[in-house]
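Assemble and predict.
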Amino acid sequence: MTPRRLLALAAAGLLLAGCTSFTTTVAAPGSSPPLGVVACPPVRARPAPDRPVVALDFRLADDLRTVTGTETVTFTPDLPTDELVFRLVPNGPDSAPAGTRLTVDALRGFDVRAGRYVAAAAAPPGGRYEVALDHALRSGTSTEVQLDFTLTLGSGAFDRLGTDGRVSWWASGAPLLAWEPGVGWARDPFVALLGETADSPAADTTVRVSAPAQLTVLMTGDQAPPTPARNGRRTWTSTEPAARDVSVAAGPFTAVERTTPDGVRVTTGVLPGSGVGAGVVAGWTTAAIADLEAIVGAFPYRTLTVALLPDYGGGIEYPSAILEASPERSVLVHEVAHMWFYGMVGNSQFRDPWLDEAFATYAEALVDPGSAARLRPALDAAGAVGAPMSGFPDNRTYVTVVYGKGAAALLAARDAAGSRAFDAAVRCYVDARAWQIATPADLAAALADLPRALDVLTRARALDAADLPR
Ligand SMILES: [Zn+2]
């Protein structure tokens, strides 16, 4: 996420004030390499074969404000459990005040006993929906659960869900499976900060959207052409083999398609009167992919879809999709960087928000040296880069420390270690932890042979002693 106006505020405040050893061990999908072992795989890790399978079926009503749907989840835990926990992001403090709300209307499943809401510091009916099973699932055994839901979209704002009566968008719009492989259910509370707090596994995902026929749907995944209009509606489908979450936008978009030299299909859509053409946004997107691939390796997805929304200031990343709410190239670079840092290399956005936000901001700085110069003074800001979302008193402190100081610390660590060695180590981290949930210790393990970089990140309190390789 890039909260653009907030970043400007934080920047104003700031002005005042290689992977040199290799092992041949490839991390098994879903498992962590032991601390202190630099697992630099010869090829990037593949998505876990037993990852969840998620099918989302959305229907956007003609009022463009009501989305009804069904979610089908096949879940195979890697630890024993007798429940399924879903995060209801639309009821969180970013969205609920604008009138957004998600309810679960029906619950089905052979093993299901009952479902209940849990407040989790969100608006009614609650921030989590917990499904009790009638028996414990052993590790490696599967269950299928189906939930019907109703999503009401609030007024358009800089948020992941909303409508302005012309275009509607919903991301994290369905109950989100909150499982962290190797750890268990993520039950983190919502916090009153402009940022994500989810922790979700990469799932084999299919999406189906029924929308009024005059609208174009732009969403996560490799999209098939829509069905012909019937009864005033068209149905759009997509597939994404490893998606932590899903974004959908439906509006009178004009879309263009481009293919990068590596075969990534980029689709960008703009609204009438947007002031910037879809081809211009496509050019920014393909350039960002090329620039970032040169630093962090191959783009993670087959496709990338960018929906340019009205200018609410900023951008929000989703797997293979971006809700771009600001016609700015630098914002787009940040969101494209999130395809590696969040989309592919997952993190607990509550526990370790810097693992995606500091890296995405750092990536912006590598592509735009002007932004690097502006960020560097942030290294002197007070506060621990590695704090959880509950550790920040307000948005300004959060953005200054996690985005600003976090990115400045990564730039300083790169300077200290040498850019070639640092970039190689980061690629080791990315390839070893692809499609999993990474931790600061995983990053520290990849930097084990770069003590100067570890020292910089420890002084910025991005890493602490427990994270360091032994
Ligand atoms: Zn971000």
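The pocket of zinc ion is lined by residues 1-2, 334, 338, 357, 360 (CB under 6 Å).
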